[in-house]
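Task 17 of the worksheet. Students: predict the tertiary structure of the chain below and write it out as structure tokens. Keep your answer in the requested format; marks are given for formatting as well as content.
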Amino acid sequence: MNSSITYREYCPEDAEGARTMLNKVFPAAELSRELWHQRTAGDFTAPVALDGDKIIGVIPHRKVNLQVASGAAVNAWVQHRVGTDETYRGQGVGNGMQDCVKAILKNRADVLMVYRGAERSGPYKFYDKNGLHDVTYPKTYRLAPAPEAPGNVRKITVEEFFNRGSGFLDLFSRAHNNLGGFPIRNIQFYRDRFADVIAVRGPDTRFDIFVVESDGQLAGYLIAGAYRGMYKVMETVSENWDGDILEFLFAAFRTNGKNLYADVTPGSAIEGAVIASGGTTKVRNESATAIMVHIYDIASTGKKVWNSVPELENVTVKVWTPQREGVIHAAADNASGREIVLEMKEHALSRLLMRRLSLKSAIAEERITATGVLPGDLDYLTSSLTPCLWQYHYIDHI
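Model answer:
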């Protein structure tokens, strides 16, 4: 590791140096001054690596309110663009910035999150080495052009989408009430993401939005982005995850003679509709975007994702890994002193607290062991951390 390099948190005076350095590393997705200002104006931070006064590394982070399961949301910071000046690569700069951001976000973050594919690649291995663990694997499907659009699908403008925003938000919320894995929506979420796509992908970018209505009420919609010759599903939702409505929407987007690409969660209703529509995919290493998570604050995250059951109200529940330990449920009245300790590796901790793991099954398979459990406790613990299907949309991580 280069001992002349120092690390600290980003400050506004770093703007031009950080932006310029990242544009050199990622020339295909340059950030204008306006877009950089937009991205850093809200909940933003970054570790900065410097050699003297020269910025030679930056990792931008954006905060989102991430729904983990119904009624459970955490404060997640999402990493984007690990950028290191090419003359400093291989000197531990990336690892130094990861250590720096862990200190920066102490007491500010529940979890760290990143979207990353190609599990055999160097970048993926970098995240894995720095303590981020996979919790879901949305895969990219290709849908070939369709001959004609169904008659019950209508195209609307972006302006109409925003004018009817509350209706779209209500439908999204109803459909996702029992799901997790996505930033909680508001209208500004869409305004920011649409502006982001256009700014990064180029001025020829456009959004096509189709809706299905029933008795004058919105029953489903699909947002796609067209840029650089690609047609990509940004988000699609239907009432009660009706598969026919989703298939109608996919068909409407495939009448322009181009392939439509959709990133969908395995086992979801959207994947079922994509497969029914003739969608094809490749092996995971070539087609999946792994969502990777590192639990920063065990106690804060545990408190937010724990689903209370009366039988464990007065029991303290802890987790233990070879690296650390923490309380995920504090007893309301621990006069008995009863305590359960769940012992596991870090990757199991990430999945457990992101509600992506069946505790009872994991214990049966010895991926997790437990101390202090009494008869019935495993069922109560599993109910407190019930696994939840995560629903991914491409717009989530733009």
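Marker's comment: The first strand starts at residue 5 and ends at 9. The mean pLDDT is 92.
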